[in-house]
Sequence to fold (278 residues):
Amino acid sequence: MEVDIQYLQSWIGREETGCETLSPSLAAQFDATFNIPSDTAPQDRAPLLIHWCLNQPIAPMSELGRDGHPALGGFLPPVPLPRRMWAGGAIEFHDSIRIGDKVERHSVVSDVQQKNGRTGALCFVTVNHEVSTAGRVVLSERQDIVYRDLAKEGRTKAVPEPAKTGTHSKVITPHPTLLFRYSALTFNGHRIHYDKPFCIDTEGYPGLVVHGPMQATMLCQYAANLKGAPPKSFRFRSHSPVFDDTDFTLNAEATGDGMKLWTAAIGGPIAMEAVAAW
Fold:
């Protein structure tokens, strides 16, 4: 599929803002989804990465694409490739979000690049976010989004090595209800996370796709629990998808200045890797 990269690069510099109050009920729903025992009283510290549940795009049903995402061409460029995923990102934590805070997000499209991969054309869109409350910046974030074509039939895939088990490891069962709850929390209509017939018959996946941001949230929380304190920075990158047809693991091991983390399906390769630093 042809990509007019110069046209798409005209979106560089486009800005978007959003503002939403973090309610105790949303915090309680988030904690319940991740089995986090915590208080949700006003001004309690909010759980890590709950900001991904705030200020999400809201589009009427008539403006959704075939995959359940809002149609492109607004804030994000209209990349004409059918598959999109959150490829990775990096976050610097400056302060804590508190329950009851009015959370403001300012986003800017900072880069659009085209590359060729083994599955065909790829387009990478980079978005920078600044999240603030009461006039103070609480975190800065880089978000990497990748768009790609459908895999070509007959193409053989290299079999990656199974991931090793970390010094610390925890098994997660990707129950469809877990995926549905996270989709609801983030107002994410992408059908690959809850519509199994669509995943199998249309997208060619073996099952529901486990959200990348949900895996990143679990890894960040896992790192904070093991260390006993939230990290100052957290970066992550997706390598391969995880599906609901098998359990996956959270893994961690200490490094010189922080912690290396990764997810992997049981017997499978690294799905997402991350680094947390304090």
Notes: The chain has a mean pLDDT of 93.
